[in-house]
Amino acid sequence: MSDQPIDGITAVTVAGAETAPGPAEGAATLGLGASVPPADAAAKTTGVYPYTADLWAEGLLWAAVLRAPHPRARIRGIDTTEAAALPGVRAVVTHLDVKGAPPGDRPPLASAEVRYHGEPVAAVAADHPETARLAAAAIAVDYEVLEPVTDPEKVFESEPLHPDGNIVRHIPLRYGNPDMNGEIVVEGVYRVGRQDPAPIGAEAGLAVPRPDGGVEVYTGTTDPHGDRDRLAACLALEPEQVKIYVTGVPGAFGDREDLGFELPLALLAIRTGSPVKLAATREESFLGHPHRHPTMLRYWHHADREGKLVKVEAQLLMDAGAYADGSAEALAAAVSFAAGPYRVPNAVVDGWAVRTNNPPSGHLRGEGALQVCAAYEGQMDKLAARLGLDPAEVRARNVMGTGDPLPTGQAVTCPAPVAALLRAVRETPLPPPPDEEWVLPGGPDGAADPGAVRRGVGYALGMVHMLGAEGTDEVSTATVKVEGSVATVLCAAVDTGQGFATLARQIVQDVLGVEEVHVAPVDTDQPPAGPGLRGRHTWVSGGAVERAAKMVRTQLLQPLASTFGMSPELLTITDGKITSYDGVLSTTVAEALEGKELWATAQCRPHPTEPLNAAGQGDAFVGLAFAAVRAVVDVDVELGSVRVVEMAIAQDVGRVLNPAQLRARIEAGVTQGVGTALMEHLRVARGVVRRPDFADYALPTALDVPDIRIVELLEERDVVAPFGAKAAGAAPVVVSPAAVAAAVRAATGRPVNRLPIRPQSAVVNAGAQPQPQP
């Protein structure tokens, strides 16, 4: 390991970091379809990968942020005198130092009012981290504490909590004949709690002042250009005066969105003229970043006596927290997918995203889609019970296919093999009953009585959208350079752990036959690639890399083809060799590249979408991905404890680009879904986050992860997507919680209408019988 100073910054690097174990004998080793190991695998597994918290600079100062202790209060004054007078304190900043305004409705530092517990109010830079924390605590803020509004149902009658009002967005979707009713009607009310993204690494950043009055920020962001533009707006600087360097991202399941973290760093660096570093505690991380939208959902499913859906009615209420952030987009997904991957001729859906004095909600895998999946799958179980049918059979009678419309009126033109996915998990053999008591609910030290344990099997189908929606201009730019036999990819797509850097290497290997491919570090001097959300980098950034690589390929092959009087299209590159269709030309890529430097830049922009209209209609989505999950659980019906035995998943992936990486993504998504179903819940009482730490916020451990069986990866390529591949990480997260809830229903006969599932929801009174098993 060596320390390498770069522009005054010390980055930890690892010699041989791109070395990894080879694949099994006979397997493809390079290009698309091969299980190419991540370049950073060795560094991450040995603990020497350079995250932001590892960076250091000469003359470094440390920052601390003062966060509001109240969920709602008026700020009557801020006195920084005592804090500024402490030895070692170099600067204190408040909203008065923010010269501009960022886009959106959230102030980077609270000014007249704080609207949620933990909102940033002021920040301090000092020569020692403990001095900075003491100084932040010494800032005297005169609060007039106000009564918080934390119940989303009450905001419609309450006074405005924000200058923009209490309703972020209302979508009234109307499809087909709203007056049509079915012979059978089932009703349900469902609730999904507040889930934290819980990244393994808390937020950290380093800001360095520039001679031109600007600033450079080193941070583990997923959207560097968006951060740059927001920071520049707040600092009243030109975007060119703010540069973002992306360092190692220690976990991200959406955006790492917290301008109240990055702005104080930039302000303090400019004010002091020194590098300033901030490493958040776990408590600050919980308070600072957005969470999954807590949602209340009321449903009415209408069907005929054969179980065919006639109409779906729903009312969705999403808690946006104090600020809008990504709530309008999450609501659009929730309303559009409110009926699930089923054929529904009529729909009446009203969705609201509202402001409260709860912690802000934002982007988290499958936002909107996860909440409605838990509800509509609960409804399908109720419908099956009412009709006396197998829950999987009711689903099979209603699944959508390619060409069917969504309730938004948009036709599903991409592959939608929902029936095949359901059939795959239905036909998979069930796991055997437990043969040892230690595997019963509660683990090795559990108190489960074998006689009180019931097994349940549940099914769930779900869908997610890929890329942005409702007119978002999705575009990414990439440059591919080849010099000698080494290729370099420049693209501002951040690899957050989803494997984009590995995919980019595979694409270039596949197109150019060059084995050694490097992906350059990301900064905002590169053209924008957009945020790392909804599988967009596989699509738009991967597509841009492929187009650039193909342009370089033409540059490489054109002279060779001209020499033999043929078209470049008649030449192929396989295993590092260039050959013509007739075998006359045969040479290696290395020989053809000798002494040459080739490069090309390309963009990828998918087909445009449109906003939903006043009736919730419109072609709002670029593409969709589907999954089916069968969950098997054991439930101690006396204690209410649940053990997930097995999760069988079949997923619509379009095309497998990296088998090992894809399976890892799916397994991780299922595990996160199990956490959503059983344990992950950020407790908030009257707007105050209770115990924001991992002692109280439970995450799945190795003992909680079930046997995950990927029974089918259905490769039906989406013709409009580069490589035909679909997003892989979000669909398992969306569908798994609903499947676990369905299995617990089957085991207990209880409604199970809340996520995470509370023990009391799985307790069965003496004499009660579970629902019939499929």
Automatic annotation (TrEMBL):
Transmembrane segments: none annotated. Residues 46-147 form the Aldehyde oxidase/xanthine dehydrogenase a/b hammerhead domain. SMART domains: Ald_Xan_dh_C. It comes from the Bacteria. This is Xanthine dehydrogenase family protein molybdopterin-binding subunit. It comes from Streptomyces carpaticus.
